Amino acid sequence: MSAVDSKIIHMGNPILRQPSRQLKQNEIASAWLHDIINDMIATMHQEGGIGLAAPQIGQLVQVVVVEIPKNCKRYVNTQPFERTIFINPHIEVLDETVQGCWESCLSTPGLRGVVYRPRKIRVNYLQTDGQPRQAVFDNFLATALQHEFDHLQGILFVDRLHNSRLLSTHENYLRFWRDKPIPPL
Ligand code: ZN
Question: What is the pLDDT of residues 59-68, one digit of tens each?
Fold first, then answer.
C-alpha cells in the first residue's frame, strides 16, 4: 500500500476520541515511525490541510505535522510555515489572552467554527532525530498547534466551540462569515 492510500478518519469514529501515547526514544528512529510520518505528510498534502495529527490516520501516537504553504487557500492571510514534525509535544500557555479563529479540520469535512484559544504558547517537543526542542508560537500558529495537539488528547475543535451559532458549513462560512470580524469572546 502506498502512503497516499491513507484515508482520513472522520468525526464519529471512536479512534479520534482516544488519547495517544508518547513515543520512546528507540521508536523515534524506527522505520515504522518514519513510515507513519511520511504517510501523514502525503495525506496532509493530498487533503489540502495545514496540519495533521497521527490519530487522524488511525495511529494513536503523539506525532503532529504542521506546514503552511504560501498563499494558503484554506486559511487566507496566514504566514507560511515550513514543515515541522512535533513528537511528544507539551504546551505551556504564555499569554492567556484569547484569539478567535474560524477553525476547520480534515476530520470534520465541510465544517468551520469559531474557537477562542490563548494567543501565545511555548511548545516543548522532540524532533525526528530525537533531540528536544523548545519554540514559542503566537497568532495563527498558536491556534493551529493547539488544535493539532488537542487531537492527541482525543479532543476535536467542535468540543471547544463557545457559541454553536458560530458553527457553519464551509460554503456558508465563505458566503456569510469570512469577511466579517470575529466577535469577541
Ligand atoms: Zn483537526
Answer: 999 999 999 9
Report yes or no on whether pTM surpasses 0.90: yes
Q: What is the pLDDT of residues 16-38, one digit of tens each?
A: 999 999 999 999 999 999 999 99
71: Cβ contacts below 8 Å, ≥ 6 apart: none
Question: Measured in angstroms, how far is the CA atom of residue 129 from the centroid of ligand 1?
Answer: 25
* Whole-angstrom distance, CA of residue 116 vs CA of residue 162: 8
Residues 89 and 125: beta-carbon distance below 8 Å = yes
Catalytic residue among 27, 67, 96, 148: 148
Strand pairing partners for 120?
95, 138
The verdict on whether 103 is a catalytic residue reads: no
Ligand 1 centroid to Cα of residue 11, in Å, is 10
